[in-house]
Design a protein that fits this description.
The protein is mainly α. It has one domain: Up-down Bundle (Ferritin). It is about 75% helix and about 0% strand. The protein contains six helices and no strands. The protein starts with a helix and ends with a helix.
């Protein structure tokens, strides 16, 4: 992987974290159920902590576009907001493995001094998947444990 391709991948991951934070915050704002709203907010916190951690790797990058400018934030929030909790998590499960693979590929090409930060990127996606798996299995009490562990490490 060429250095430019690696840098582009890191920049795209950073943009994705900004988008993810806005996505989960907006879902939380649209949710009537207090438990679900709280979980969306913790996921937004994970995206925020990961994005802030990655920001140091893109310090020389141009200012990111607004989160509305890419991947249709509003339509995604509308789509997920109309789904049941179970349906939303099942839909999210589809994106985790490809994202984990992309981030692991970035990790294999990360310079030594950036490996810990890129590992957080990988781990945050794994934590999201573990969260969704636990929720779908009916574990609504400890499902956020992997997410909270990565938030702590990212900060």
């Amino acid at each position: 992987m060429a250095t430019d391709t690696y840098r582009d991948g890191i920049f795209q991951a950073w943009q994705g974290e900004l988008w993810g934070k806005a996505f989960f915050e907006q879902l939380a704002a649209k949710t009537d159920d207090a438990d679900t709203r709280a979980k969306w907010r913790v996921l937004a916190e994970l995206e925020d902590a990961t994005g802030k951690r990655i920001a140091s790797l893109v310090a020389d990058a141009p200012e990111p576009p607004s989160t509305d400018a890419y991947r249709s934030l509003e339509s995604s929030v509308e789509l997920y907001g109309a789904l049941s909790w179970h349906e939303a998590l099942e839909r999210m499960m589809i994106i985790f493995d490809p994202a984990i693979e992309r981030f692991q590929e970035l990790l294999t090409h990360a310079p030594t001094e950036e490996r810990d930060t890129v590992q957080i990127l990988v781990d945050h996606e794994v934590a999201l998947k573990q969260f969704a798996e636990r929720e779908l299995a009916g574990d609504r009490t400890t499902s956020l444990a992997p997410v909270r562990a990565v938030i702590e490490r990212a900060q």
